[in-house]
Amino acid sequence: MATLLITGATGRIGTALRPRLLAAGHDLVLLDERPPDPGVGDRERFVSCSVNDRAALEAALTGVDTVVHLAGIPTEDEWDALVEVNVTGTKNLLEAAADNGVHRVVQASSIHAVGRLPEHPDAPGSIPGDRLPRPDSYYGVTKAAMELLGSLFADRFDMSIVSARIGAFGERPHSARALLMWSSPDDLARLVQATVELTEPGHHVVWAVSRNSGAPADFTAGERIGFRPVDDAANVLDADERDELPPEDTEFLGGDLAKQALGRARD
User: Fold this and answer.
1) What does pLDDT average to over the chain?
2) In a domain, 267, yes or no
3) CATH code of 129's domain
4) 267 pLDDT more than 70
5) ω before 185 within 30° of 0 (cis)?
6) Which domain holds residue 15?
7) Number of domains forming the structure of the chain
8) Is residue 112 part of a domain?
9) Three-state secondary-structure class, residue 5
10) Residue 266 belongs to some domain of the structure
11) 89-99 helix and 138-157 helix, angle to the nearest 10 degrees
12) Terminal Cα distance for the chain, rounded
């Protein structure tokens, strides 16, 4: 099994992935600016730093096989803050990984990198995972930039980098839109495992969403690297629960964020 570095380890996704990756037999290095809850276990170590602390990144990468890069500002914010954390922080992380011989990285891109695409295309499964970016916000622009950095480092340093376009993440679908674009924790753990098993260099942009009924996501790009999601939002909630989900704008893939004024932080 592998030793994985998780950046942003105490965020929602990192916290959900920890027990699943430990159960799969992996050892974990948890990197964040705040300590994890629950506390560090026997097969974990915690490094307190940001992704803009190069010396601490170097130390965190000791003995690591694969990076799960989740650190970042997770929604719309001021431009300078987004660039510093999401773009420069990703550049720093990839530089440190390349310099330390860590050649497998899965990084959290977002549905918002293509958030201005229509949510209801002509047919389900018709939007490729590696479709060219069409961001819906400054946040989406930084996620598209993260994907470009992944391409650059994969080409220059023979790295295996997966840019994961995550949808509506949660233990359960939380809105009507999530019935199409839900990303379950178990499926994201499957994507991490697929990344751990990569042996050939290259950059892969994939849909990191579950196999939801009627979803616009085409899973071909993910299947090429062995990622096969199995969860379906329609099977998690019964009919009454689905009917009671709060509405969300469904004109664009990016939902409400696709219609907000640029630069305005989300409530």
Assistant:
1) 94
2) no
3) 3.40.50.720
4) no
5) no
6) 3-259
7) 1
8) yes
9) strand
10) no
11) 20
12) 41
Please answer whether residues 91 and 146 qualify as being in contact, where contact means their C-beta atoms are separated by less than 8 angstroms. no
Contact 61, 96 (CB under 8 A): yes
Residue with tokens 């499926």: 187
* Catalytic residue list: 139
* Residues with Cβ within 8 Å of residue 129, at least 6 apart in sequence: 165, 205, 206, 207, 217, 218, 219, 220, 221, 222
What confidence tier does 42 reach under pLDDT thresholds 50, 70, 90?
very high
Return the DSSP state at 226.
T
Q: Position 204: which residue type?
A: H
Nearby residues of 263 by Cβ (< 8 Å), 6 or more positions away? 76, 78, 79, 138
Tell me the per-residue pLDDT of 186-212, one tens digit each, with 9 for 90 and over.
999 999 999 999 999 999 999 999 999
Over the Cα atoms of the chain, what is R_g?
Answer: 17
Q: 């178990």: which residue's tokens?
A: 186
- Whether residue 136 lies inside any domain: the answer is yes
Cα separation of 205 and 216, whole Å?
A: 16
